[in-house]
Amino acid sequence: MSDPFHDELRTAVRALCSDYGNDYWQAADEASAYPHEFVDALTEAGYLACLIPEAYGGMGLGVREACVILEEINRSGANSGACHAQMYTMGTLLRHGSDEQKGRYLPAIASGELRLQAFAVTEPDAGSDTTRTRTFAERRGDRYVVKGQKVFISRVRQSDLMILLARTTPREKVEKRTGGLSVFIVDLREAGDRIRVGPIGTMINHESCEVFFDSLEVPAENRIGEEGSGFRYIMSGMNAERILLASESVGDGFYFIDRASDYASARRVFGRAIGANQGVQFPIADAYMDIRAAAAVRDEAARAFDAGEKRGDGPNMAKYLASRAAWKAANAAMDTFGGWGMASEYGIERKFREARLYLIAPVANNLVLSHVATHVLGMPRSF
After folding, report:
1. Mean of the per-residue pLDDT values of the chain
2. Where among 227, 262, 284 does a domain terminate?
């Protein structure tokens, strides 16, 4: 059953996105430029602060509403990847930060005065095994000194703040491999030459960078929660991240279906609409049903998260199913458009490249399969 508030929210987001059409996104893609105008418009409308409580200047909504926003952004042909991290990265601070930290940062994030887009977890050697994080934060009195490297850190050049996961106890000295990791708020405006940032060229315009920490000093008051408990804090944010990114894939999937079905109905070859051919219409219909199914699993995961569920089963499955459904829809759209699908002016090839990302990030789908096999079905660990 349709939710009236969600319908209103969809309509409002769709109206905002209509001011930023394919020409805008194509120009940003070709120039590898950050879409500042679009992000500013979302910020001014309050959408990037939808999960921040009203007491801190946000909209005070749930993950389910955040899903609606991101889905509609991507369904319009835009790319939520330019700004989505402000939603889920902020959650680490909101759920585990002190009252002082929340009061210091959340109102400014909600208003747009501060941008929190950078989430520094991944490392070149650790990959998906976060417990092998080597970036180290050594406690020295009232500060930590951070040394190490992170990779594929998106939007760090557009951020004022960064959430950083670093080791505070050597791995060989912890009882559990998930122990000894801590989370910090890094003020990038004060980092100076203690942080070096280098862009990583990728197949999509995603502002990915490698980041080097050269004895960066972080005040101890900027540590979130207890020292050594950072892995748990990060994982709670990752569950929200996977639900929200599933919503982007659902939006991408509907974008491809909308465009493919319209084009198939209008494009005429051999005296008839190509959509009259089952070889064209069946793959589109097949992909559409997969997207609807993925959206249902996403909705269930979002409701459970908003109700306090901490397990990762639903978020992981939502991300897996949505990313695969979007990729199926992307291929159906590319086949439907034929040669024109490769032409940048139609937007299909840009969204095609963007949709491919979520099959491997922020968690590879094979790791989702392993999680379900082990934690849901009770089979032995495969690694």
Report:
1. 96
2. 227
φ, ψ at 340 (rounded to 5°): -70, -20
Domain that holds residue 168: 116-227
High-pLDDT (> 70) share of the chain, %? 100
Helices (H) and strands (E) in the chain, counts: 11, 10
Residue 169 lies in a domain: yes
Q: What whole-number distance in Å separates Cα of residue 306 and Cα of residue 62?
A: 6
**Shared-domain flag, residues 238 and 368:** yes
Domain stops at, among 160, 195, 227: 227
Rounded distance between C-alpha atoms, residue 100 and residue 104, angstroms: 6
Please give the single-letter amino acid code of residue 23.
Answer: D
Spatial CB neighbours of 284, under 8 Å, sequence gap ≥ 6? 257, 260, 261, 264, 275, 329, 332, 333, 336
CB of 68 closer than 8 Å to CB of 9? yes
Look up residue 325 and give its DSSP letter: H
Chain segment 225-248, per-residue pLDDT in tens: 999 999 999 988 899 999 999 999
383 in a structural domain:
no
- Compute CA distances 362 → 120, 128, 152, 167, 239, whole Å: 12, 9, 10, 20, 11
DSSP assignment of 135-194? -EEEEETTEEEEEEEEEEEETGGG-SEEEEEEESS-GGG-SSTT-SEEEEEEEGGG-GGG
Cα–Cα distance measured from residue 326 to residue 347, given in angstroms and rounded to the nearest whole number: 15
CA distance 22 to 33: 14
Find the helix packing angle between 348-357 and 313-337, rounded to 10°. Answer: 150
What is the C-alpha to C-alpha distance for residues 65 and 51, in angstroms, rounded to an integer? 9
| Cis peptide bond prior to 170, omega within 30° of 0 | no
Give the global pTM. Answer: 0.96
